[in-house]
């Protein structure tokens, strides 16, 4: 696999130390040093392949470290903290990612034999060993960056091949279940989407359980297994990440932001914010703005109903991240 990785690194060498679009739908890459706080986000479902260096991902109480010998799959939207590391010989972190589109996964499933579902109470994210076949599929995809006139015709086939190779591996059930109605993973996915879109509203677990067509006790067990968080913890993480992006963007002070993301008590908000990010809201936002002022081209944009901070030299940290 060494030759495959070498060519993949060459193809991705144009990546910058922020999310870099490839011109291929849903495929992005990133290279270089990225501050850890920029990797705290609600991550979109994705397949992440590291080409150099390594990455650590923490979701709830679970932490995974993966490198070019492995790949990472996140099948539902999850708040996570990541950190990246250069390789032992000093090569900078380099990775590519494919954002998962459930409709494409479901379309592929329709052409495959129906296997057994995933294990009961399984997580919505994990790491698996990479295979030569999966690397070959990625090679075909990234070679399109050198032949952009072929992207429209060939990228859909190569995307299906990448998905197929993952489905043939130990994490294949994850893709199958998230795209198949009535599996526990897809039911929890419905509840997750509701929380993400309504995080500022009071949370009623019994209503979420009904939405997922599960008993309250089964809903709790499945939700915790999939996300490594309870529903209330998930909501809190999303609220705090959204609040952080608002504060960095200058969209209000700690009190107004606290109320805006659904807190009834600014004091509780400040306490939970400091516990999550290590500093009180105003000090943390000032520090991060200072970090970005040291770079060039800081801009604020809107994405999926939330603010994001996009610094020209950084991967963006925002609500709805697809971070390679």
Report on this model:
This protein is α+β, with helices and mostly antiparallel strands and 324 residues long. It folds into three domains: 2-178, Jelly Rolls; 184-232, Homeodomain-like (Arc Repressor Mutant, subunit A), CATH 1.10.10; 240-257 and 264-321, no CATH class. The chain has twelve helices and 13 strands. The strands form two sheets. A seven-stranded mixed beta sheet has the order 6-5-8-3-13-12-11. It has a six-stranded antiparallel beta sheet with strand order 1-2-9-4-7-10, with helices on one face. Strand 12 and strand 13 (317-321) form a beta hairpin. Helix 1 (2-11) packs parallel to helix 3 (132-143) and helix 4 packs across helix 5. The chain is globular and about 55 Å long. It starts with a helix and ends with a strand. The relative contact order is 0.15.
Helix content: 40-55%
Q: Return the CATH topology of the largest domain.
A: Jelly Rolls
Beta-strand percentage range: 15-25%
Query: Order of SSEs, N→C?
Result: HEEEEEEEEEHEHHHHHHHHHHEEE
Q: Largest sheet, described in full?
A: 7 strands, mixed
- Number of E-type strands: 13
Q: Average pLDDT value?
A: 87
Strand order of the largest sheet: 6-5-8-3-13-12-11
> What's the total helix number?
12
Architecture (CATH level 2) name of the largest domain: Sandwich
What is the CATH first-level class name of the largest domain?
Mainly Beta
Q: Any idea what the CATH superfamily of the largest domain is called?
A: Regulatory protein AraC
Give the overall shape. globular
Decide which structural class fits the backbone.
alpha+beta
- Give the total of domains: 3
> What's the N-to-C terminus distance?
21 Å
GO molecular function: DNA-binding transcription factor activity; sequence-specific DNA binding
Organism: Sphingomonas sp. JE1
Protein name: Transcriptional regulator, AraC family
InterPro entries: Homeodomain-like_sf, HTH_AraC, Tscrpt_reg_HTH_AraC_N
């Amino acid at each position: 696999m060494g030759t495959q990785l070498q060519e993949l690194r060459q193809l991705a060498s144009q990546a910058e130390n922020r999310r870099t679009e490839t011109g291929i739908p849903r495929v992005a890459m990133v290279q270089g040093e990225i501050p850890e706080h920029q990797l705290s986000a609600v991550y979109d479902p994705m397949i992440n392949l590291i080409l150099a260096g390594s990455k650590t991902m923490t979701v709830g109480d679970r932490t995974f470290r993966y490198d070019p010998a492995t790949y990472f799959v996140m099948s539902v939207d999850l708040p996570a903290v990541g950190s990246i590391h250069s390789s032992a010989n000093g090569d900078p972190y380099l990775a590519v990612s494919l954002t998962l589109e459930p409709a494409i996964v479901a379309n592929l499933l329709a052409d495959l034999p129906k296997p057994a579902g995933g294990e009961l109470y399984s997580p919505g994210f994990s790491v698996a060993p990479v295979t030569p076949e999966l690397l070959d599929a990625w090679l075909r995809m990234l070679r399109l960056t050198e032949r952009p006139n072929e992207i429209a015709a060939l990228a859909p086939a190569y995307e299906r091949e990448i998905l197929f190779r993952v489905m043939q591996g130990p994490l294949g059930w994850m893709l199958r279940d998230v795209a198949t109605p009535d599996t526990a993973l897809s039911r929890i996915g419905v509840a997750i989407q509701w929380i993400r879109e309504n995080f500022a509203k009071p949370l009623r677990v019994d209503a979420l359980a009904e939405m997922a067509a599960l008993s309250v006790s089964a809903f709790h067990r499945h939700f915790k297994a999939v996300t490594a968080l309870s529903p209330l913890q998930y909501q809190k993480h999303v609220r705090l990440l959204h609040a952080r992006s608002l504060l960095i963007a200058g969209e209000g002070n700690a009190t107004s932001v606290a109320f805006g993301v659904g807190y009834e008590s600014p004091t509780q908000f400040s306490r939970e914010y400091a516990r999550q990010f290590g500093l009180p809201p105003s000090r943390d936002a000032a520090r991060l703005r200072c970090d970005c002022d040291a770079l060039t081209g800081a801009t604020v944009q809107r994405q999926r109903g939330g603010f994001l901070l996009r610094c020209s030299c950084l991967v963006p940290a925002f609500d709805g991240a697809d971070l390679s």
